[in-house]
Write a structure and sequence with these properties.
Length: 397
């Protein structure tokens, strides 16, 4: 009897030692592609977004031809930056110069052509005084809607996660709900304005299960970021994002100009958590095909690079052009190998690959909602936090 007890104890100890060894050497046993980082070809920092003002219609001709009115196209939220004072002054000076030149030419012309010259001068002056596009990053905000994603924790399917997104072209609101096993539902919300640098959060709220809310406040009047979790404050830079608005900011930038995001191109975001903030370098990896429950999707893979030496937490995002460049998949990998995953669960339209309404409440993407794009915004997986890893079930992207 005692011999068997001793044998069982020895076997248990050996198994415990083996488990500890496997846990410590998991990275070696299951190597990731972290070591293979594509050559960086460009670093994009926050910049103003391009403004595309409505064109001023030209003056009607003496006898305008009768035309059948064209069907109006749905207007998509396209972001812009305000024109600088210097640019406006240059345009005004150019308009005045053109007007003077046109007047002089009209005086030198015969009377028969004076009227036509004056008309041309008026049109030129009107075109010169009309607002012109200001240079900047192209930015297209996805249409409003509710989205659903399948959620996985270490490969095990959980209840669907949802994200509610609304955008009026001037303001936005995003509410993300993610169920986690044994922990409860985590709710993340972000709301704010849309300014010259894209999404401009005013308040970011984290509600983890039954714990009290943690709130980050973006005070744009004082250009400070305050927290309810800590008395510390941070300066508020242009283009600052929270952990979830950052994903929608990236999606809007790629929607605006997909060709700008080639493999190796890295865009930098300043991202705020519930108690701190830091720069996130997000690199374009390349085009990949992913699998969803409804079929395969062509996507573009983005990965957040290490923020500092020894940073092993990883976040990967796959944006799908057929979904309007909204996230089709988000994977967060913890330093110990734990993975949290969101995968698009909307139905796929055979004609354009866009999401469509489904009885289970999946996201809807209508061709009239936005050109070239479809479903509404995708829910970011809990994105990264600068706090140390915690084992209480809190997912920290």
């Amino acid at each position: 009897m005692w011999r068997w007890i001793v044998v069982l104890l020895v076997v248990g100890v050996l198994h415990w030692i083996a488990a500890q060894w496997v846990e410590r050497h998991r990275a070696t046993l299951n190597p990731s592609d972290d070591e293979h980082v594509p050559v960086q070809v460009a670093l994009l920092k926050p910049e103003r977004i391009e403004r595309n003002p409505a064109a001023v219609p030209p003056a009607p001709a003496a006898q305008p031809a009768t035309r059948k009115p064209a069907a109006s196209k749905p207007r998509e939220h396209v972001l812009t930056a305000m024109q600088s004072a210097e640019r406006a002054a240059m345009q005004a000076a150019r308009a005045a110069s053109d007007a003077v030149a046109s007047a002089a030419a009209a005086n030198a012309m015969p009377a028969s052509s004076a009227s036509s010259a004056s008309g041309a001068s008026a049109n030129a002056s009107a075109n010169a005084n009309s607002p012109q596009p200001a240079p900047g990053a192209k930015f297209s905000v996805p249409p409003s809607g509710d989205l659903q994603y399948d959620t996985f924790y270490n490969g095990v399917r959980n209840q669907p996660g949802t994200i509610h997104w609304t955008s009026s072209g001037e303001r936005y609101e995003m509410v993300v709900s993610v169920p986690l096993p044994f922990v409860g539902t985590f709710v993340y919300s972000s709301h704010g304005r849309i300014d010259a640098f894209g999404l401009a959060p005013e308040q970011y709220v984290e509600k983890r299960g039954h714990r009290a809310e943690d709130i980050s406040i973006f005070n744009r009047a004082d250009r400070k970021i305050a927290f309810t979790r800590t008395p510390a404050t941070l300066p508020l830079p242009d283009g600052a994002q929270d952990r979830f608005s950052m994903v929608m900011q990236l999606a809007s930038l790629v929607r605006g100009d997909p060709t700008a995001y080639k493999p190796g191109v890295t865009r930098q975001f300043f991202v705020v958590d519930s108690d701190s903030g830091e720069n996130w370098p997000v690199e374009t990896i390349g085009d990949e095909t992913i699998r969803t429950a409804q079929g395969y999707l062509e996507t573009r893979h983005f990965k957040r690079l290490p923020r500092r030496e020894g940073d092993q937490r990883r976040i990967d995002v796959w944006l799908a052009p057929s979904l309007g460049w909204l996230p089709a998949r988000i994977v967060q990998t913890e330093p110990n190998g734990t993975q949290f995953e969101l995968v698009w669960r909307g139905k796929l339209n055979a004609e354009n690959g866009a999401g469509t309404d489904s009885p289970d409440g999946s996201a809807n993407t209508s061709p009239s909602a936005a050109p070239a794009a479809a479903p509404e915004p995708a829910p970011p997986s809990p994105v990264d936090s600068t706090a140390p890893d915690d084992t209480s079930g809190n997912i920290k992207p």
